[in-house]
Amino acid sequence: MPSKRSADCEASAGPAGPEPTQGTSGIPVLGEAELMAWVVEHGVAARLVVPGAPTPTVSAAAAALGVALDDIVKSLVFLVAGEPWLVIAAGEHRVRYPALAAAWRISRRRVRLATPDEALAHSGFPVGAMPPFGHRRPLRALIDTRAAVPRRTVYAGGGSRDALLELQTDELLRVTAAVSAPLSDPDGGDRP
Question: Which of 14, 36, 116, 175 has the fewest CB atoms within 10 Å, i.e. is most exposed?
Answer without folding.
Answer: 14
